[in-house]
Amino acid sequence: MQVVEKMPYSVSETENEWIVLADGTRLAARIWRPSGTQARFPAILEYLPYRKRDGTVDRDALTHPYFAGHGYACMRVDMRGSGESDGLLDDEYLKLEQDDALEVIDWIAAQPWCSGLIGMIGISWGGFNGLQVAARRPPALKAVVSICSTDDRYADDIHFMGGCLLNDNLAWSSTMLGYMSRPPDPALVGDRWRDMWLQRLEHEPLLAAIWLQHQRRDDYWKHGSICESFEDINCPVLAVGGWADGYSNAVPKLLAGLTAPCRGIIGPWAHKYPHFARPGPRIGFLQECLRWFDQHLAGRETGVMDEPMLRVWMHDWQEPLGEYEFRKGRWIAEPSWPSLAIQRQVLVLNAEGLRAEPGLEQKLDWCSPQDHGEVSGTWFSFGTGPDQPTDQLVDDGRALIFDTVPLEETLEILGAPVLDLEVAVDRPNAVIAVRLSDVSPDGGSLRVTYGVLNLTHRNSHERPEDVVPGARMRIRIALNDAAHRFVPGHRLRVAVATSYWPVIWPSAEPATLSLFTAASRLTLPVRKPRPEDAALAFQPAQSAPPLERSWQRKGGGHRRVTRDAETGESVIEVLADSGRSTIVALGLETESIQRESYSILARDPLSAKVDISYTMCVGRGAWQTRTETRTVMRATKQEFLLEASLDAYEGETRVLSRNWARRVPRDGV
């Protein structure tokens, strides 16, 4: 990545500015803006709970000074109850969060250095609330860049997928418990830091318990899901995502649903900003954002609206690895989305494999071991460790598989493959997990995409229905959107299983699936290569200079699978250790250690257990704080069982200890 020191404007920085809301709450803001001029500039807002002081400080240093150096006033605001801001944070995406954002936007627009025109940018939570605030239509908000976000908080977020409970629901709750346990910085809030900290710790919610109360797509999830009314957004949206990220479906759905002007970019990236994301190739993402904001905030014609609606990285075959520095492939583009150039190709699941024509119908019975999914990687990949799918051969042996014959011609897909299956199961509740893989001549199996379905949700996420054991039914599973080139000699493989651990929580009982061949079909979204794709390119990645840190201890991480030969228990252990370092300009020391454990017995879904802990340290000199959090989840046939703890230390003195124990009834999940 090219570090740009010399930009059109020099940059001034305000480390902390208080924005006072109507109810007296003060939100903490960091501001970068062009200096040496009395001109008024458009503003760019990023609005998050992830702590501007130490949480997002590294990426903020790369990004916001770059925008400011090119003629924008940039604001990084901590939401109510986070960082140095006043108040308490009760949950994600609340109406209060949006209301506060509207006040922040009004405050920015009224500043003497602001032109009155504002854009929002953000990834994940910030990408979500950029869309949600845009749907509220504040007059000053004229453009949004939303990265790794979603339009549907139930069906396409970190909580549920196909009506199945994602284990990342608990993982993210555990992350928030750890993240939000850190104190505000006394250097900014003064002696009241301890009172603020203790008040937050005493109030901090166990988010997993809240989210588990809503196992159907009810009003809780509809709030903040802009798919409920796409037309509410009337400002231009640049939607950006990555194929390695859990939010891989959002960009196509936004382009198809929004009525406002929109464009989309999907790269090979995990859950990071594309100018420093892995896997590569990285792109000149900040330049793309400038073109978007210049067009819609600064009144400069950049040609961005004359370009294709969707630009996408088309993957090539690559050896399956848990992490990549670079994914092979090429850029392609579609002038509109949905694209009229996508053709549908149907392959039938026959007893002998995937074929163009149906064979004789046969009933194939299968019950997967509960550890099917061992090589799945995580739903929520950050690209900073081995968290992506490895060779699928291990899991292929735990599933029904259907292969094509070796391809004679190249086949490229762009979009969401769909499986229409004729099935029966022997339990009133069961899940189906489907993978589409690219199998090389030497047998390597690269997962291209996947999908899961809770069969009680086969007709509706709002009104689940028990399955009649043994009754034949037709179901549809849309796999995640993908872009992949299958080359001659390779085979397509569909794998069908009744579990997918640790991606989803298992059904309460092992279920045997009966799949009826010849009546079950795979529909592929086929795109023919076009010569004009070769002309597509992005500028190289640029950024402002990185933040300076001094290191007391380097970190590291791993993802390991172990199996007890005597009990058959499979355990996946994850370590993510940030090391300990000091932000030189602030003299602020930070450290975080995350440990995750996912264990299950191959034949017992009720043995499933997730155990996640965080150690978070923040300090300066004699002022040192540490929090220890832990969350554990198990289940019976009737209930989810949650336990959590939080211990906070000032120096070596424990100043607070909390414990949670929650039992949440299972609702068809």
Describe this structure in words.
The chain has about 675 residues and is mainly beta. The protein has three domains: about 250 residues, 3-Layer(aba) Sandwich (Rossmann fold); about 190 residues, Jelly Rolls (Sandwich), CATH 2.60.120; about 120 residues. About 15% of the residues lie in helices and about 40% in strands. The chain has eleven helices and 35 strands. A hairpin with a 4-residue loop joins strand 30 and strand 31. The longest helix has 15 residues. It is globular and about 75 Å long. The model has no long low-confidence stretch (mean pLDDT about 95).
- Please give the CATH architecture of the largest domain: 3-Layer(aba) Sandwich
Distance between the termini: 45 Å
Biggest sheet layout: 10 strands, mixed
CATH superfamily of the largest domain: Alpha/Beta hydrolase fold, catalytic domain
Q: In terms of per-residue confidence, which ranges show pLDDT below 50 for 5 or more consecutive residues? A: none
Average pLDDT, rounded to a whole number, is 97
The general outline is globular
Q: Can you count the beta strands? A: 35
Instruction: Tally the helices.
Output: 11
Number of domains: 3
**How large is the radius of gyration?**
25 Å
Strand content: 35-45%
CATH fold topology of the largest domain: Rossmann fold
CATH class of the largest domain: Alpha Beta
> Main sheet: which strands, in order across?
2-3-5-4-6-7-10-11-12-13
> What's the helical proportion of residues?
10-25%
SS-derived structural category: mainly beta
